[in-house]
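2024-03-11 09:14:02 INFO receiving multi-entity request
2024-03-11 09:14:02 INFO entity count = two
2024-03-11 09:14:03 INFO echoing inputs for audit
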Amino acid sequence: MPGNDLVLHEEEFAKIREVISRLRTECNAKVVFLVDKNGQQIAATGELNSIDTTALASLAAGNVAATDSLARLIGEKEFSVLFHEGERDNLHISVVGGRVILVVIFDERSSLGLVRLRVKKGSTELGAILDIMLKKSAQPRKAAAGGSPFSEITDEDIDKLFSD
Amino acid sequence: MTFINYAAREINCKIVYYGPGLGGKTTNIKYVYEKTNPNSKGKLISLATETDRTLFFDFLPLDLGEIRGFRTRFHLYTVPGQVFYDASRKLILKGVDGVVFVADSQAARMEANLESLRNLDLNLKEQGYDLRAVPYVLQLNKRDLPSALPMEEMKRQLVRKGEPVFEAVASKGTGVFETLKTIAKMVLLELRKGR
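2024-03-11 09:21:47 INFO inference complete, emitting structure
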């Protein structure tokens, strides 16, 4: 199969959280979150109670995937930033390191200019953390995690998931 | 491509329902949604046209519980089956961990099944996958229709690698969970193997 599973360890998770929390404060944004291009949520911070983050992750990834294809159709490599303007809230979506998607939700307390500026800076930091994450993901799982918990999954463990 | 989050103790896997238009992919996912405990499921998202044809994808997140201390989540996606939505289908296959092919049992739809299967093979290859290596289940849907082809005939034409085959009537739920359980199990066994 192509590529490796994406593995997120606590060290990188903590660093990612730190960067996106700071980004949220600097942007004065409501929510900042990071999604894998396949639609898996990596980390999120902010006013998350009112938002279905799983659905948001999947749709943001679908949106980026469709827009990437559109870009290629007209001979562009990608559209690196998507911006959706609403009556109250706005959505700023950008691709970091060609691999993950950074979503910022903000309202009138912030502005597009400010978000763009801060996202640019934050993306560089996130890109560096992601590089480490991807390198670790590419290592054999045992070496990266000090023993893989999954090599010992039994048929019974799996059957238990479907017991009801 | 499974996403393993050690920090949140989560495993996330992606299962894609593939097959010809009007074959019952969305019906499968809707049935799973209706019959699943509210605590174990997220919102069902359908990006569909006004006439309820899938335009981009349907999406249903399922939480199956814990395995070895990790929350096990499955993200179920359907592709739009109609031939001209091929660009969208390719996008949805990205990062797939397991595929369910939902075939339409009506004799008149056999050619559409075969075309969709060829399309799946091709689109997987484009993403660097090999149908023979990906966890894969074949579901023969609409078994209740009078025009349904005999099971053996369908198997002869559609089975690709000795994959598990299930008879289904997705609109009534027959075979839906059997299919899902089997593909989920195959994906987890793949995870056990590691890479």
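2024-03-11 09:21:48 INFO post-check: Chain A is about 50% helix and 20% strand.
2024-03-11 09:21:48 INFO post-check: Chain A has one domain: 10-161.
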